[in-house]
Amino acid sequence: MIYNLINQFIFMESTTPSNPNKPASNRPKHRGGAPRKAVKMEKSIRVRLSATQYFLIESKAKSAGMKISDWFRAAAVSAKVIARLSPEERLRMRELSGMANNLNQFTKVANGGGLLSMARDGVALMAKISQFLDTFFTHDGQNT
């Protein structure tokens, strides 16, 4: 008899809802919160900034009406990156510097005398510099 009463008590306790004022239902519990985002931000980058850099970025984000992370993300995505000069381009820049030095020497000699021969050499050097600049700066201006 006691055994039956204990079994009934255990069975009755497990079937009664935890809140007697609320009826039991088979629906899943509502989890609440914001809806899931279409694009999940799952990667992060840690950037160390000086106080000045931080306040500059913070003020730009506030003026744009954005959070700092959103502004930083938008700025990084839309930034145009210019690649460093290749070894060949650095060599050409050195050549250009040498040509500029030669032109300066020509003008000094021309001021001292021999103006006609220096003028011919100067025109030839200017043509060479112009040709160099045309080949050096022929790019489409796109990100590299």
Q: Topology, please?
A:
Layout: H1 2-15, H2 51-64, H3 68-78, H4 87-112, H5 115-136
What would a concise description of this structure say?
This protein is mostly helical. The protein has helices spanning 2-15, 51-64, 68-78, 87-112, 115-136.
According to DSSP, the number of beta strands is: 0
How big is the Rg? 38 Å
Strand content: under 5%
Separation of termini? 88 Å
Overall 3D form: rod-shaped
The helix/strand series, from N terminus to C terminus, equals: HHHHH
What is the makeup of the main sheet? none
Enumerate the spans where pLDDT stays under 50 for 5 or more consecutive residues.
Answer: none
| pLDDT averaged over residues | 78
Count of individual helical segments? 5
Q: How does the helix and strand content classify structurally?
A: mainly alpha
- The level of helicity is 55-70%
